[in-house]
Write the structure tokens for this entry.
Amino acid sequence: MKRQSSKPSAAPEEHDAPEAHDLGLSHDLPTLLNRRHAIGLLTAGGLAAALAACTSGTSSTSPTGAPSGGPGGGAPGDTAQSDAGAGEIPEETNGPFPADGTNGPNALTTTGVVRSDITSSFGDSSGTADGIPLTFSLTVVDVSGEGDAGTPVAGAAVYAWHCDRDGQYSMYDITDQNYLRGVQEADADGTVTFTSIFPACYPGRWPHIHFEVYPSLDDATSATGRMRTSQLALPQDVSEAVYATEGYEQSVANLQGVTLDSDMVFSDGYALQMARVSGSVSEGYTATLRVPV
């Protein structure tokens, strides 16, 4: 378990309109190239493949309905993805809309950000994000010692955020709202749980949730001492079921235009980032992910 520098990442870039989602690669590639697997991308062929993949119009599934290129299985509505694997969860870009002080606004230092239900705005903002209910839990474990299971990091804090049903991010695309952002302190098992809505799929990106891990609640709410920044991936079969519902229409075509193997974040491996998801459109979904640091 290593503490990451709290030094801001790439210089802030202006985001004037929702269409900037289409510029996701230009925003995120500089940070992506710092990843542990970036050497492969720096070859001429690898970089060309990464750029071409962002405009891919294909997707594929295994016979079980799970995304190709990774573990799958389980009954419909109970997509069992593997969270096994050695090492720590990959360090990822926090994207252009983190609101953690590294690129414009800072939600972390705003009163009210510590909460489990992130569907509504907090502080001086008001408003609620519409969408299919999603409850997601992240369990932070320290794997720096011996053994594969890891030790729960009780008292750690997690900041989580994601886009809304329209693929927009609060505090950037929607400047008068700060919903779908929140901080929770890990319990004795190292687990934090958030109540939210299922995020959209916007152009060029696989459905995902961003999160940052901090040593303590005080560190998180002062935006210092960040240990890890990563992303949770959502399974294809569940995403397709959600996107077939009213309000998610644009996500149907967007999901068809990207695969896990072409996504700029998950293309180099996602076994440690693919959530286990159960539930249904009518009842809502529950997602869990083990976060080894």
The chain has one domain: 18-292. Residues 5-84 have pLDDT under 50 and may be disordered.
